[in-house]
Amino acid sequence: METDAPPSDHELMLAVRDGDLDRMGDLFERHHGPLFGYLAKLTGDRSAAEDITQVVFQRMLKYRHTYRDGGSFTAWMYHLARRCASDHFRKSLTAPVAVDPSELERHADESSRADESAAIRDDHALLHRALGLLDRDDREVLLLSRLQELSFAEVAGILECSVGAARVRAHRALRTLRDHYLQLQKDPTS
Amino acid sequence: MNCQTCHERMTELADAKLDPETAALVRAHIEGCPDCRREFESLSQTLEALDKLPAAAPSHRLRARVMGDIEAEKLTLRRHAGWASSIRAAADSRRDRRPSWVPILLQSLGACALLVAGFALGERNATQRQLADLRARVDTMSQLFDQSVLQKRATGERLESVLAAAATQKPDERLIDGLINSLAFDTSVNVRLNALNALYLHADQDVVRAGVLACLPREPNPLVQVAMIDFLAATRDREAATELRKLVVDSRADADVRESARRAIDQL
Fold this sequence. Notes:
The complex is a heterodimer of chains A (190) and B (268).
Chain A: H1 9-17, H2 22-43, H3 46-62, H4 73-92, H5 101-104, H6 110-113, H7 118-133, H8 136-145, H9 152-159, H10 163-186
Helix pairs in contact in A: 1-2, 2-3, 2-4, 2-8, 3-4, 4-9, 7-10, 8-10, 9-10
Chain B: H1 3-14, H2 20-32, H3 34-52, H4 60-109, H5 111-139, H6 141-144, H7 147-152, H8 155-167, H9 173-185, H10 189-200, H11 206-215, H12 222-234, H13 241-249, H14 255-267
Helix pairs in contact in B: 1-2, 1-3, 2-3, 4-5, 5-11, 8-10, 9-10, 9-11, 10-12, 12-14, 13-14
């Protein structure tokens, strides 16, 4: 039996660019979860992350004609997300605060959450706090580098730097996170 | 391989993203260097913890909001497509009419037709002169527009004026001029974009298309430039081709603007 492969993100976005706007709905279904998760960790603010996610899709609609034939949809989307997040930080004029882990995880995975031990939740809380202690630039490069859909070359493109520079920045950010995390494990009140 | 290079490649080694040759080099260094081994184990644990961190999920409102945005954009697209097609239809009907009545007039009225044709030619020349004059006036701000008065008003007020003009069903020349003025000279990108949207409704007027075309080279914002190019492409204004070609080869122009200009030329 012959089965049609689902259209790629790139094909869907080209269709959107050509005026088939319903395909943006398909792209939303595919990508809004990881995008929102990234923005929630970046901003430490669920409400802001939701607003920024909406703005990212608005901009994809508005600037659809700028999408390139040879482009990577995911890289383009996170490039726009980066701009939208920067606008958000500029408007709020406040550095993102450490997240409230219970709030972040509230809708995460209700079924598996019941099985999580208190120790794991505590560990997640510490890691959320450690993430919140990073500079925004460090958090940004680290979270982008952990997205499976993006290569380092694409992360470098989003950050507008060389691949080598992106690699070094991600490594330094990870070390800083590790140091904060270990410090918090030793002394959660620090 | 030194420790520094090894450190920078640890994340990719943990993610199995290195090519086999580099991975073997990094692994060999880690096995022979206790410091790097400790560092690798420690960073790998942090990466594992980070990757296991539960992702937040958005509320159901987000889907409704984005789907609402998509529907709104579809409505706008349909409206613009309607205007573009009506403009094309009007242009086609003018093109179709011209060859039919001129020969009839020539056949039936003989020598008188020469007078009519001469008048028509003179009228076309007059239209060209008017358009050239308009472009010159748009370029010389002071003759067309009292900027000092406009800029004293708040952005919100100026935007309200533009939106009110857009809502007027049968605008007079003054109102059309006002919209072109706003597109040419307003300092707010939002006001200029709304002025351009309002002008879509009157794109069948030569003066409107010439006004947008005259504003294009002086527009500093790529977003507005792209919107103007879309306007000129949608209105199939062949007179725009020269200006668009200039943009395509202008290395100082934004890449998206150049790409839009290239697309518009294809459409024209």
